[in-house]
Specification:
Blueprint: H1 5-14, H2 36-48, H3 52-64, H4 68-80, H5 88-102, H6 112-128, H7 139-151, H8 156-168, H9 176-188, H10 192-204, H11 212-225, H12 232-244, H13 247-263
Length: about 270
Amino acid sequence: MLISKAFWISLCVGAGLLAGILPGSAFDGTASDVTPVEAFKTGTKAYFAGDKKTALDALSFAAENGHPLAQWKLGRMYQNGDGVPEDDLKAYEYFRSIADAHADESPNSPEAPFVASAFVALGSYYVTGINDTAVKPNLDRAREIFSFAASYFGDAEAQYNLGRMYLEGSGGDRNPRQAARWLHAAAKKGHHRAQALLGKMLVEGEDMKARTVAGLKWLIVARTCSDATKDQWINESLEQSFALADEKQRRKAANLAERWMATTVGCY
C-alpha cells in the first residue's frame, strides 16, 4: 500500500507516540538506558513537531539498533530529501535492512505495510538503478521483489508495478493476462493508476476480449483520485475510451462507477 501521512499518524496515535507533542530537546543517544523504542518515540514526536535535527538523531539511534519503523522513516526522509540531503543510496540501505530482517513478518501485523513499502522501494530502485553506485538496473530482480510484496503482503503498489512489468515484458516474459490479474487486485484496493491502466486494457481489448463497460467504470473511478498534472494520461484515456463507447455503455459504466465508489474505499 502507499503509506500516507495520515496512515503514519494513525499508527503513531495508536501506539501513543504523539501524546503531548512539544518541541523536544536535543536527543542524547549516549545514555545507556535509552532503548530503540524510546528513541523512536522521541524521534517521531520531534518529527511531527518540526524538529528534524532531533528527529534525525533519535531515529538514527533507533534504526541502528534494528527498529524497523525508524529505518523506514529514515529511508523515506533520505529518499525525499525531507530534513536531510536527498540520498537514494542511504534510503536503499535502510529499506534493504528492513527487507533482510523482516521478510517473514506476518502480513497482518501493524508493521507489515511498512515492510511491504520497503520491498516496493527496493524494487523501484532496481528498475532505475542509483547513479554512481553499485546499485544497477536489474529488472529481473525488480520483478522478483514486486512479486513477493504483491503476493505475500498483498501490497497494492507492488501489485500495480508487477502488473505493469507483465504488461511491458520487463524482467521476464510479457503476459497480459497476468498483468490484468495483478492490476485488478490493486484496483480493488483503490489504487487509481492500476484502475486506470486496467480500464484502458479492457476498453482497447488488444490483448484480451474487450469489455468496454467494465473498462470505462475503472477509468471513471480512477479519475476521481487522479492528479491533473501527474496523471494527465488518465484523463486522456478516459476521453478516448468515451469516444469508442456508445451512450448506453457510457451510462451503464457511470452507474457502476458510482455504485462502486459508494460501497468501497474509493481510490488513492
